[in-house]
Write a structure and sequence with these properties.
This protein is of the alpha/beta class. 47% of the residues lie in helices and 13% in strands. Strand 3, helix 6 and strand 4 form a beta-alpha-beta unit. The mean pLDDT is 93.
Length: 121
Amino acid sequence: MQFLIGIPVERLNELEELHKDYRLYLLSNTNKVMWEGKILEEFKKAGHDMDFYFDGVIPSFEEHCYKPDAAIFLRAAEKFGIKPEETIFFDDSLANVEAAQALGFGGVHVVDNRPFKEFLK
């Protein structure tokens, strides 16, 4: 079995398209080394930096809390003026999606490679 690490360029293209119509924010459970190295590098693969794709980002190491802890969702809502009832949270972890839903966010558990827009239908 082969595990792929990274962000496929197709996903970056999807984020670019979504960002034309929606405000996008990123909550990332990560550490400083990964954030400043591999993660920032991955977002540059299509020629843009992370700010091109997102209106705001919260790396967990800066907030000292991690998904699925409610605190990180509440901090994002406060910091960016997000209304949970008007927000959809996408994640590949069911526990994280359920935590967001418990706070009033919409939630999508991403388990395959379907385009993000298909989840919005």
